[in-house]
């Protein structure tokens, strides 16, 4: 039953309901819900979903991403709708290329999956301005995400536009389409708490506005405990097993199970161990959860200037099961696939009713689900972070690793444990395919007084001036220095101090770069304070203020400023300190090279470039261009920008995004154990290196020959270090315990074909087109370490390598059972052993 049926209370509504349900049943399709689950066509379902944001990949990548999601055991694809991509100017809509929402949904439908459409239209998503168009801020009288007339009118107009578009394309499930759920607003709970009464009124309005659109499928609101009926409130987080919906008749749903975390320029790269992610999902399901969505399943790329923050990196990889490039991230993808199969084996029992919970020890529990038809499924949990638990459940004994859950689809045999990975791991590599490009360069003119510049007294806010059409705004002023100034006769240089609301700043004195300052995601404000080289007479101070993505979250983030708001002052003069804030400032929006479209095929020929030994190197504000042919093969491609500092890159006129290799990741990248509560600061990599070194180049943006590569370097770099690389599997590993349970073995036993315990098998598989060329490591015994750095332990079977060398070398994939005989006998009979193996792919 859908909640709105329950909420109904008068005869008029009954009539409406009868009309509506007859229309619904005419299509023989319906989506409803009760306390247990979402039901599709009358069938309660355990639904596994994953987020893939369509503009963060290309239409050419979509079918493969969706197929890999399906093979990974997903039922649903979830996406936000990106308002600022779809309505770049008021009333001018765009639904093409990466923004072809209908095409994306139809591809999901063709693959046989459902869609959870998060219309928002607030998205957050570390996306520029949280998905709001920048023009929306300048609608008179507007205030975002509160009980404000102009905002509500704009939100209703866009939401209605999307719903009508979906209806016209017959994309709702009740019309035979794939959309089973819609979302209105997004994580509004914390905002409502902040705003009080107007927040509550807005939330009520948003709920009613959405429900009145009559989509025929349920609406959800995430992270919004008081979501008005019939809307289902849902949970977002690293764990959501503690969560209960606000009404007993609503199902327990997890809209964002965070698979990792985003990267910011200047921050390390976060990752989340597969064992803990699987554990959190099993915890949620055993507590009666019936819908889980991985955020992200494919994170992808913030192409162009779509990254929010500010300071969100161009890569939105998110440590997702499909990596930024669309390749399987192993073992995460495979370990979750195995989890989904185990959960689906339990589905009949899971949807039948609530679990019985039994204590098995101080930190151990069993959750048992039984259906009336007799099926039984059990989840055995060990919450202890430090030690194994031997538990007894219905007269059988089970060994549970720390911080893990075992799944028993027949209440007897374990088919899966969240801390025991059966899937292979893979190490990836970035192999150069073209380097030594023949570059040409063009020096950006420093701000000159020309056509589109204007002068006024005082300092202007940046976004109001640029309307975010560019990252760049020039602020230029003249400073007269008296020949009698003391510093001109051997005194100390004067100090220029500039306060900026953000996000980055290059300071030029008389055309020379004098210094750079920038903020961070946590504190975007910038203070520049440095002695500057001035001469007698008129000096030109040019401040190039740079936005690095607009904020996407926080109370009234639309009011946060950027740019040089002052004060700006010069100290150390004869007069003491001179305030420059209220001088005349000349403004220019954007760079000259931008107005000439130097990034495009046609625009790049509008200026004279220099080549050969005249190329500007380590010069600020330099444009570089070259052409190259597409490499053969179909591996994903990237640009290695490690010798460059900060700027933007384009290929054939399409923006790859912002790069900022000079911003090194600061943080603590210590060892990371999967066991114990995870948060976004627990497991980090890349400390001391560029937060992002490689930038995804979609294959579909290339033609066979003559591709135009244009780089805008703001700060100074060496373009000869730029190379095009391909991403491929370097090696694959298996790391498996003897007697580790597997679903395949359970199925063999359940079918009656075998009636003895079976050992697991190690599967190794290189990418299509690759072969296993050597065995880097193999040990059956007590090896240590993880894929890429295994070491032998005190117990090691001497023939560990032989079998892999015999069966695997020269093959694309191979399978070896984990039995002592194969490795020349049991090297240490009374010890629990495992097999660790790493095979090189080439
Ligand atoms: C934008 O700038 C204009 C012109 O200076 C000013 O009148 C207006 O108040 C500004 N708007 C906002 C929202 O800051």
Automatic annotation (TrEMBL):
<dbReference type="Pfam" id="PF01301">
    <property type="entry name" value="Glyco_hydro_35"/>
</dbReference>
<dbReference type="GO" id="GO:0004565">
    <property type="term" value="F:beta-galactosidase activity"/>
</dbReference>
<keyword id="KW-0326">Glycosidase</keyword>
<dbReference type="GO" id="GO:0009505">
    <property type="term" value="C:plant-type cell wall"/>
</dbReference>
<dbReference type="InterPro" id="IPR019801">
    <property type="entry name" value="Glyco_hydro_35_CS"/>
</dbReference>
<dbReference type="InterPro" id="IPR017853">
    <property type="entry name" value="GH"/>
</dbReference>
<keyword id="KW-0732">Signal</keyword>
<dbReference type="Pfam" id="PF02140">
    <property type="entry name" value="SUEL_Lectin"/>
</dbReference>
<dbReference type="Pfam" id="PF21467">
    <property type="entry name" value="BetaGal_gal-bd"/>
</dbReference>
<keyword id="KW-0378">Hydrolase</keyword>
<dbReference type="InterPro" id="IPR041392">
    <property type="entry name" value="GHD"/>
</dbReference>
<comment type="similarity">
    <text>Belongs to the glycosyl hydrolase 35 family.</text>
</comment>
<dbReference type="GO" id="GO:0030246">
    <property type="term" value="F:carbohydrate binding"/>
</dbReference>
<dbReference type="InterPro" id="IPR000922">
    <property type="entry name" value="Lectin_gal-bd_dom"/>
</dbReference>
<dbReference type="InterPro" id="IPR043159">
    <property type="entry name" value="Lectin_gal-bd_sf"/>
</dbReference>
<dbReference type="InterPro" id="IPR008979">
    <property type="entry name" value="Galactose-bd-like_sf"/>
</dbReference>
<dbReference type="InterPro" id="IPR048913">
    <property type="entry name" value="BetaGal_gal-bd"/>
</dbReference>
<dbReference type="InterPro" id="IPR001944">
    <property type="entry name" value="Glycoside_Hdrlase_35"/>
</dbReference>
<feature type="domain" description="SUEL-type lectin">
    <location>
        <begin position="756"/>
        <end position="842"/>
    </location>
</feature>
<dbReference type="InterPro" id="IPR031330">
    <property type="entry name" value="Gly_Hdrlase_35_cat"/>
</dbReference>
<dbReference type="GO" id="GO:0005975">
    <property type="term" value="P:carbohydrate metabolic process"/>
</dbReference>
<feature type="signal peptide">
    <location>
        <begin position="1"/>
        <end position="29"/>
    </location>
</feature>
<protein>
    <recommendedName>
        <fullName>Beta-galactosidase</fullName>
        <ecNumber>3.2.1.23</ecNumber>
    </recommendedName>
</protein>
<dbReference type="Pfam" id="PF17834">
    <property type="entry name" value="GHD"/>
</dbReference>
